[in-house]
Amino acid sequence: MRKDYPDLTRAACVxxxxxxxxxxxxxQDFTVTLFVFSWALLPVGFMVVMAISSRYAQHRITLAxxxxxxxxxxxxxxxxxxxxxxxxxxxxxAVASLASSALCxxxxxxxxMEAWWWVAYGLIFGTVATMYVALNHLASxxxxxxxxxxxxxxxxxxxxxxxxxxxxxxxxxxxMGIFRFEHGGVCTLYGSVDGxxxxxxxxxxxxxxxxxxxxxxxLDFVALRDASLTxxxxx
Length: 235
Hints:
By secondary structure, this protein is of the alpha+beta class. It has five helices and six strands; from the N terminus they run E-H-H-H-H-E-E-E-E-E-H. It has two domains: about 30-140; about 140-235. A six-stranded antiparallel β-sheet has the order 1-2-6-5-4-3, covered by helices on one side.
């Protein structure tokens, strides 16, 4: 699994930012995720052995449950680091895989169908692959966030936001909207507080090399800048 850390000196988009916007480093550290995921592979390895051996067959479901719990923990430590990470298609596939494995184990345990252990094992083996792909991609998403000063009393200029799923039309300290790029990436609009200063921020969940042109972000950056300047001048 890659452990990518933001490096603004490499950010090509930083040199061509819309007027009034600044780039901010994204804080992420997947060391704990990598550690937990590595330990989760230990019971998965034992599952491989038990899948080809009939010894200790009575412990197959218990071992699979332990492996799944550790995989869920590893996923949570990674997904919790980025806003809107669960809206990313690879992460959604990993969630579906984890949920399917948990449902299968619950049915096998509750209905006493341990003879079908191989179904759960197959799902968990598949979950390892989908989780690796999802978390590896998430770790590579090191594009910087953009921010602009914003008054808490100023509503969003919705006419300047095309294709956005707006959850809150007024500034709030948290997620306010989501936008999906054409290639599948996700961008989150959220409010941020730094001391007494409030800002409107954009966080693209994409690798630095895949940051799209600002013309396809579904935003009129000039209108947002003007709204910011107007609100700040009135305070």
